[in-house]
Specification:
Blueprint: H1 5-24, E1 60-64, H2 91-99, H3 102-106, H4 116-127, E2 140-142, E3 151-156, E4 174-177, E5 181-182, H5 183-187, E6 197-202, H6 213-228, H7 252-263, E7 268-269
Parallel strand pairs: 1-2, 1-3, 3-6
Antiparallel strand pairs: 4-6, 5-7
The structure holds zinc ion.
């Protein structure tokens, strides 16, 4: 998730200009009623089609690691950590590699500035989507067993790019990577070598101070939205799935979007 402050500012200016011109022009038209339900934002769809989990995969298992950091795994060709954001597509393979060895998993260092409260905040964020379980969209549960999960949360002090340069100024709080498989091919009997979905959460703010719990909670909820299948970002800054995290909770638009998404037949399965 990456945000540009500049974009946000210009967006604000446009909104304010719009408001002013509305106020300046008296009109007999009644104010439009606020929609009772949210609007589906089409950015949920990936460029390859609709991605979501199947009922057969439920309940999904989510493992929130106790601060475990994968940044020590280096890409030999570039010298940068494999967790660099330009190498996102590789993360599920990296996680699969680490998870296949209990020794490797147990020897992962803890991300700097991590504390146990962060794990709790992340867990709370992830749990926000449970509101939709009773509607039958999906089911998931947290697990303490890293050998048996579909979605994994690991941690990083800060994100880096492919040159290994820290993206300090950037307010990226989390990034999700998932490998997906064509549903039709699976239906036709094709074998899919499913890989773990990886969420990386950041332990620090741009200034290097520990990430506040409320920001982390919002980040984890946002990344869980990606893990469930909302591929890109809502253009509405008030939505959790916008690059601004909205109010840090699932908005009416986010709700409408996840409901709509899970009503569609997927093209791809994580
Ligand atoms: Zn995002």
């Amino acid at each position: 998730m990456r945000g540009s402050h500049k974009t946000f500012l210009s967006l604000c200016l446009i909104v304010f200009a719009g408001l002013n011109s509305t106020l300046a022009r008296p009109t007999s038209k009644p104010a439009p009623k606020r929609p009772a339900s949210g609007q589906v934002y089409p950015q949920f769809r990936s460029q390859y089609g609709v991605i979501h989990w199947l009922p057969e995969q439920m309940p999904l298992k989510v493992y929130v690691s106790p601060g475990s950091c994968l940044d020590g795994y280096v890409d030999e060709s570039t010298g940068a950590p494999r967790t660099n954001v330009d190498n996102k597509a590789d993360w599920p393979f990296l996680a699969a590699q680490v998870l296949s060895s209990p020794e490797a998993l147990n020897s992962l260092p803890q991300a700097q500035e991590f504390n146990e409260g962060m794990r709790q905040a992340a867990t709370q964020g992830i749990q926000m989507w449970k509101a939709f379980e009773r509607e039958g969209l999906f089911r998931y549960e947290l697990t303490d067993n890293p050998a048996d999960a579909d979605i994994y949360v690991f941690w990083t002090h800060h994100f880096v790019n492919k040159l290994g340069l820290g993206l300090f100024a950037n307010d990226i709080r989390g990034v999700t990577s998932k490998e997906s498989f064509p549903y039709k091919a699976i239906l036709a009997g094709g074998q899919a070598d499913f890989k773990p979905v990886v969420i990386l959460l950041r332990t620090t703010e741009p200034g290097g101070t520990p990430m506040p719990y409320d920001k982390l909670r919002a980040a984890a909820a946002h990344e869980m939205g990606h893990a469930l299948g909302i591929e890109d970002h809502s253009p509405n800054p008030g939505d959790l799935m916008s690059i601004y995290y909205g109010r840090g909770v699932i908005s009416a638009n986010d709700a409408a979007t996840i409901r709509y998404l899970y009503r569609l037949t997927p093209d791809l399965i994580p």
